[in-house]
Amino acid sequence: MTSVLFVVSAADGWTLKDGSVHPTGYWADELATPHRLFREAGWDVSIATPGGVTPTVDEASLGVMGGTPSQREQTKAYLTQIGAELDRPLRLEDVDEAEYDLVFYTGGHGPMEDLAHDPASGLLIARRMDAGAPIAFLCHGPAAVFASKAQDGTIAVRGRTMTGFSDAEEKLVPAARKAKWTLESQLQHNGVVYEKAAIPMRPHVVVDGNLYTGQNPASAQPLAEQLIEDLDAVGR
């Protein structure tokens, strides 16, 4: 059976450049949709957070920004269904990533607060990249790569092609106008070849060898479907 580890932010706030803290967490659909699709594919799914802290859902992702009313209700229902897993996640520091066929980082602004600086997550990403093992990042999930270091001191994904929440998309988020940094700019600054959809908030998935990325919430389903197709094809 294919096994996947979800790495989810434990942050419930995002510190902005003026010192204020904006409520955040993980983006509901970016966790619920891939989790559901992987389970429906017969995969075994585990969830881990820094310190084993119960993750916080970004309330904005359950409102109008979270899709149509029916989509939001489906997402809420699924998160309730897996509530026991979310309440008691694994401690990321104790996880052996080599035991999993796939590591999947969900989004929301939370990763910009904690996973971007988390040493255990950084080591996991570096080991995954060294081994050429499948790893995926969705929306703001790629912020976690800034904690990963290759042997030469650069980030472990330097020179690779990725996507992630774009600067144009951040401009649509009022709080993000006060961000200390933005994902697209920081990825490019660190030597990543960044790609994005021609139109903001449209689905966009990039595959570069073992490295899979989805740009935004709309990319959650196509990213998960691409992973299922590819990993099932090699019989993981």
From TrEMBL:
Keywords: Glutamine amidotransferase, Lyase, Stress response
Similarity-based family: Belongs to the peptidase C56 family. HSP31-like subfamily.
InterPro entries on file: Class_I_gatase-like, DJ-1/PfpI, Prot/Nucl_acid_deglycase
Protein name as annotated: Type 1 glutamine amidotransferase domain-containing protein
Coiled coil: none
Tagged with keyword Lyase: yes
DJ-1/PfpI domain sequence ranges: 30-229
One Pfam family from the record: DJ-1_PfpI
PANTHER family: GLUTATHIONE-INDEPENDENT GLYOXALASE HSP31-RELATED, PROTEIN/NUCLEIC ACID DEGLYCASE DJ-1-RELATED
